[in-house]
Sequence to fold (214 residues):
Amino acid sequence: MRRGVALAGSALGVAVLAGALILLAGDGSPQAARTAGQQQPAPGDPLTPEEVGRASEIANRRHMAGGRVELLYVERDDDKAHEGDRRAAAYFYDYARDTLVVRTVDLGRGEVVAESKAAGAQPPPSRREEVVAAELLLADPRLGRGVRAEYARAAGRPLRSASDLGLRGLIFRGGPCRTHRCVRLFVRLPDERFLDTSRIVVDLSAKKIHTLEW
Fold:
């Protein structure tokens, strides 16, 4: 359960898990027929890819008023009071309100059974957030030009998109990011070198780049 991590006030969070939205085939498809013949997961088993996709779809059914809300990831809910149920926790972040929203999905019932919100809670960044942070970095006229030049030197070809970069993000909580969701990016090039991004912080809430002063 990531809720304990999400509500902790630690300075950094390690990016360990990226969220995924998985499209499900219809009930009459060959994939559905294969799934029907497979052994059903036990209550304590990790979520299957199909369950992750279904939990994502169910969690997104309930409208979130206003804001810029992003699904970070989905994982199995570890509530001891419901050990016999297949339940998932869907983690959303509202960047306009800087609030983490966790929706608990009962997969057997096919509905959201609980929702909690925590301002200031900062779980590790998702893979999607790492890519968005890199896109903001590339959009900066000076920094983006430098990243593209270093990539072309390492790869022998132009950078096509932020997804071409090797990315790892850490949550940053200092300076201008005490309330915003900010990420420090570690950027690996094709020749295995890392760019010097130690002073760069990407503010996902404000969609800005901050340069730290030592």
